[in-house]
Task: inverse folding
């Protein structure tokens, strides 16, 4: 199931039809990391040729699936997207047992940004980072530019702006016309921001919601060891680092997400 808005964009040719696997009631894109990166760059370049709505890509993990189960309005926000990635290894592992077509791999935004940056650098595709604290955002851009010297940044902005300032923020992004806009405002604020402003962001090729991406790029937060990522235990690593903030969240959301995946997948 996709939203009527996404259907309209498919019919107008401004989005792509792709294979999905239903997990926890959400249509998860069955697409790999490198293929997604190539797709983003291709869509971004193609968007320069005409005035069209941005391609909107978001992600789901256990927390998101649990929120969708409890909040119909949040579910609608997710279904506005042209694409939903599996940003949780447990979803990939469970898909092998509960879905007719298993997911090929996890598409974590923290890895996808690097896969995309390498291809964007070669193609002359520009980024814009929106979100996080000012110093975190600034450092995230600086570190990406150090890793990818030819990568273009159309601009950047921290995520601390008022409702009254949002119109000016959107107008500035639209004026700068970044090819790919990475929005790291946290769930569900980033999805609300994108859906609310999608029609105002003409000139942007791709929008990718990014959660805490900039915290990782800046070095503020560290990734779990690779073996924990592959085993689907990155959530445990993060809980060990931030027990007060995350322990209760995962204790509540993980069982709900597991229930929804077992019940509402195909």
Result:
């Amino acid at each position: 199931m996709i939203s009527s808005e996404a259907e309209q964009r498919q019919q107008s040719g401004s989005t792509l039809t792709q294979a999905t696997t239903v997990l926890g009631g959400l249509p998860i894109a069955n697409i790999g990391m490198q293929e997604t990166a190539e797709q983003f760059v291709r869509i971004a370049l193609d968007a320069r040729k005409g005035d069209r709505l941005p391609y909107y890509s978001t992600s789901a993990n256990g927390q998101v699936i649990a929120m969708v189960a409890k909040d119909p309005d949040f579910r609608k926000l997710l279904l506005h997207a042209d694409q939903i990635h599996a940003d949780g290894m447990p979803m990939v592992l469970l898909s092998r047992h509960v879905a007719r077509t298993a997911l090929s791999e996890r598409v974590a935004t923290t890895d996808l940004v690097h896969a995309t940056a390498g291809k964007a650098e070669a193609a002359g595709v520009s980024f814009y980072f929106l979100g996080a604290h000012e110093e975190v955002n600034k450092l995230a851009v600086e570190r990406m530019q150090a890793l990818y010297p030819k990568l273009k940044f159309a601009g950047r902005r921290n995520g601390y702006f008022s409702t009254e300032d949002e119109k000016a923020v959107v107008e500035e992004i639209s004026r700068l016309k970044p090819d790919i806009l990475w929005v790291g405002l946290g769930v569900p604020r980033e999805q609300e921001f994108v859906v609310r402003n999608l029609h105002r962001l003409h000139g942007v090729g791709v929008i990718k919601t990014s959660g805490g991406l900039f915290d990782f790029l800046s070095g503020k937060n560290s990734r779990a060891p690779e073996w924990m990522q592959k085993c689907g235990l990155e959530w445990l690593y993060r809980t060990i680092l931030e027990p007060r903030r995350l322990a209760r969240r995962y204790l509540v959301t993980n069982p709900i997400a597991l229930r929804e995946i077992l019940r509402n997948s195909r």
In short: Residues 7-14 have pLDDT under 50 and may be disordered. The first strand starts at residue 20 and ends at 23. Strands lie at 20-23, 26-29, 55-60, 83-86, 126-131, 152-157, 180-184, 206-209. Residues 30 and 36 are 10 Å apart (CA to CA).
